[in-house]
Design a protein that fits this description.
metallopeptidase activity, alpha+beta, PmbA/TldD fold, TldD/PmbA family protein, about 475 residues, single chain, six-stranded antiparallel sheet, globular, about 20% helix, six-stranded mixed sheet
Amino acid sequence: MSARTNKPHEIVERALELSRADGCVVIADEQSTANLRWAGNALTTNGVTRGRTLTVVATVDGKEGTASGVVSRSAVTADELEPLVRAAEAAARGAGPAEDAQPLVTDVPASPDFTDAPAETSSIVFADFAPALGEAFARARAGGRELYGFANHELVSTYLGTSTGLRLRHDQPNGTLELNAKSPDRTRSAWAGRSTRDFKDVDPTALDAELAVRLGWAERRLELPAGRYETLLPPTAVADLLIYQYWSASGRDAAEGRTVFSKPGGRTRVGEKLSELPLTLRSDPNEPGLESAPFVIAHSSGGDQSVFDNGLPLAPTEWLREGELKHLTTSRHSAGLTGLPVAPAADNLILDGGEDRSLEEMVANTERGLLLTCLWYIREVDPATLLLTGLTRDGVYLVENGEVTGEVNNFRFNESPVDLLGRASEAGRTEKTLPREWGDYFTRAAMPALRVPDFNMSSVSQGV
């Protein structure tokens, strides 16, 4: 009998029954995906996949403290369930006391749909999108351009049960669309991406029209040297930079003097003004269109994430309020170490507080500057300042007297997102966006475009 013949909540309950440890957490993730891929204005592949992953966390009390053991496996059969539980218990008994040990979470109301069947996606999610994509192919072909890209939709139903009585469930849809338009000679390329929950709010024909304009801009090519330029960062580029900042905003690391958010003497920069613009950076599991898990789901411990926090409710959190640093990420354990409030990371990120102005309006108000499409290959250079380096990609455009006058070469950049927030002179309208670099890991973001008067293009890149 395969694991898929058992309902996920039954697998969770059975694993908890088998546990002989002092504490136990069981997480069942039911995943289904549907995808389309295309190249040269023609669909190439499509498919649907399904799978299950089971994670067991065992905790064992000892004289020196509580130890934990974590084991995750996919495609677990009924016969393999007890060995999996025993393996987690053995791992706990063989480990030393867990530094992040806390009592397992209690007193969280059960999800009313905990015993329901998992949600699943299928090719039906593309019922309206696929015909529109075919129309985009026809328009691109007639316009002398080629479209490449993919659409992916994933639905994960997570069932979380604990020996303290928690029975929680969350369904997470996640859709991404990435579209590249290229000239037939491959010398010009433009990119657009969107995140979506159900593909009902993405229009490939509108994206193709946007890319056609960008390819038109690229017909005039100019070369610029490295240097500091007034630069308009579109929402996707802002998202990539601030997601990395979010991942680096560990309260414990800051208190230990290891990050850009540190102050001497074991203090942090919480309460410090980071931007003169009234920008608020926040996470909210219930943000419309960007909904994410309303409780902690931790398959492992590390940094400011702890398996002992599984099931802990997540509240809306302002990381930055009107330019002032308000919170850093913490688990219950690291909050106790640092004296900071408990603030686990949620799975979305929103920056708002800018003006109700589109990117096109910001371009129209630019005397001379650069307009980026996106960033990629972002890497950390210096954690003490959060200096990042990376490359521009798929179109850097010169703006003169409020109009795009041509495409310029790509650049390598060196910038800190924290420093950029302090130097940004304008923020536009917040909109949902797909991070280009981190889209495989983090898709639920809403950002404005930012104007930076002196963005550091440190060297010229030969990339397309």
